[in-house]
Amino acid sequence: MSGTVEFERHDAEAVNSAKLRQPLYAARKKIFPKRANGSFRNFKWLVMAITLGIYYLTPWIRWDRGPHAPDQAVLVDIANRRFYFFFIEIWPQEFFLVAGLLVMAGLGLFLITSTVGRAWCGYTCPQTVWVDLFLVVERAIEGDRNARIRLDQAPWTARKIALRTAKHAIWIAIAVATGGAWIFYFSDAPYLVMDFVTGQAAPVAYMTVAVLTATTYVFGGLMREQVCTYMCPWPRIQAAMLDEHSLTVTYNDWRGEPRTRGAKKAAAAGVAAGDCVDCNACVVVCPMGIDIRDGQQLECITCALCIDACNGVMDKLGRERGLISYTTLADYNSNMALATGDGAHEIRPSLVRDAAGRMSDAVSHFHLRKLFRPRTFIYFGGWALVGLLLIYGLVSRDRLEMNVLHDRNPQYVVLSDGSIRNGYTVKLLNKIPEERTVTVSLGELPGATMNVVGLDHEEGSAITVTLEPDRARSLKVYVRQPREDAKSPGKAQRLVFHVEDKSSLDSADYVTSFETPE
Amino acid sequence: MSHKEIDEISGVATTGHEWDGIRELDNPMPRWWLWTFYATIVWALVYTIAYPAWPLVSSATSGMLGWSSRADLRTELTAAEAAKGDYVAAIEKASVEEILADDTLRQFAISAGSAAFKVNCVQCHGSGAAGSPGYPNLNDDEWLWGGAPEDIRTTIAHGIRFAGDEDTRISEMPAYGDILSREETGDVVKHVVALSSGGDLTGPGAEVFANNCAACHGEAGKGGAEFGAPDLTDAIWLYGSSPAEITAQVRQPRHGVMPAWQARLGETTVKELTVYVHSLGGGR
Q1: I need a surface site. Which of A3, A256, A285, A439 has the fewest CB within 10 A?
Q2: Which intervals of the chain form a coiled coil (chain A) (predicted)?
Q3: Contact list, A423 vs chain B (CB under 8 Å)
């Protein structure tokens, strides 16, 4: 046989080869944010301390309301349908006050976003705060960025197992504390904590803690930036909230480009060099794993840690701070036009500097005045208006209320002496945590007298009843009018119930009708 | 087997369906989806074995757990009965007056009585107990057979002119169409109208009334609960207040019948009904 075999070699590639196949699922690339130092980092520590402090400690603040109401300053008492907030007590029918607060929160978010961009995302969002807290734990146990990367790539040794176990254990402890703090807003905290540890709390308390523990641990420890990038709608909405005068974290490429790693060499070679030395300090501190020098992007939560990192490098190099800074798009565009000759050429760093090498006076900087523009006035105006309405609603609301329901069947009853009787259900709401005695009286209906079922009193036009503290009382009231007093038979007459607390001067009226036969 | 068509752009097989040049890709399911799907199949099988599911000829499989909606209902009903038990026992022992005096018992009896009323009584007395011609309004303060708690209880328990109960309340007004002349009837009707509306009581009807009617309705026409004789001086008329309606009632009286409820509903329910009716506003 000859050594050559004839076969055809095809010039083809499998259309469905593993190489070409794209996975439907993008695996997460791990991020190891380096600790940043600077004024924004310090500000974030402060915000973190305040927000976590508010969240964990608020349920433990006591507030004396007397013997008939709980002494917890902030309490959502769902079982008894009351909401307590320091000196304010809200009944379910006053829930519009809470709705108003939510409207204020919404408008406030618009206001903040239109002025200082995604400050909510960068500083106060629970996701940001808790991820920051979890990163503190991670750094304390595993070290800063480089140590963490090394550890992550290292084989599973006893040390790695120990470190990882410790980290996750502390994370879970924080998560349990987070879920645990939540339930204290809904029940008396000191009692609940005892019940909780002795296993006597309601099942819903344990379930709530379990769910919140799981979400805190998973979102804060495992998913982190993916929550912001994939799950949260706000990064999408905020695009509509920002305008050219909103502050966003910006890489000022008009002074940074062309970036170079060897400024001296470039100068010697006569090549223009910007301020960016391509040290990647801004990249390694970013908790979102982005490069701010790529421009504004959906992932950026404007935590400003890259500003801190870059400022540190600029200080070392003896250059002006602010290569990465909070800048408005308008300022950026104007400076960009300056550096590129209105787009006529590439960025020339010399154009933004004066002869002495300092920033030219032609460079635009942010000024507080730019916060005041029609849009922010409208947001602030709406926010303030809702706030004033809420304060008015809170101050003017009744602490003694009355609702009257006319009997529908029968609408009236003729009595043997020819007088006419109508039945009413009168609900008296005593909204203060003290017992009080009130007088209910009839008005506008000539000759009307009343009789309350189950109450020992003489038939008359006024009665006195005692209301329990912070409770509603329902009375069945029969009102009677002699036939000769009925002005126009067959027509409904006006009847006014009036309730008055003589000691506090609280009073309320309810206008209803009195039906008569033809 | 037909030849698999592969989409050029995505490299994924198509289903072979084509509409106006658009072909449907036949992407494989994600694994998590498939596993969820298999899990639901297993779950469904286990479920149909554990619970009643498969239809047979005359019934269905009863399931290994022995669950049934009837048993559930029975349990709930038993629990509801048990929850009421204390109250019912207390009502059974107490008199109507005692129930009325006790806040908790009265509330319970009114609720229970209201429910019983809606099933048994509304057909005649109306859902608001306001009655209609021939059927008394139970909200007012006029009581043919008495408005004290015990009177009301007796009326409900034994009925009125009810053939099936020995202790039923009985009264019958004679048909005066056979006894009185036309004029006498006219006179007495005028007198009765005057009794109610405060008119002249010295007419010829006064004598007719004294001779024929006062025996039951009383000299002054105030009636009497012991005979179930209506008070003719008040503003309430069972069969209407016009002279024509009164004439008709004098000549050929109609008599309503109310069934006795004790045998049917039991003593406790009758007490609850009594408390409810008494609470409507006219009880004495």
Answers
A1: A3
A2: none
A3: 139, 281
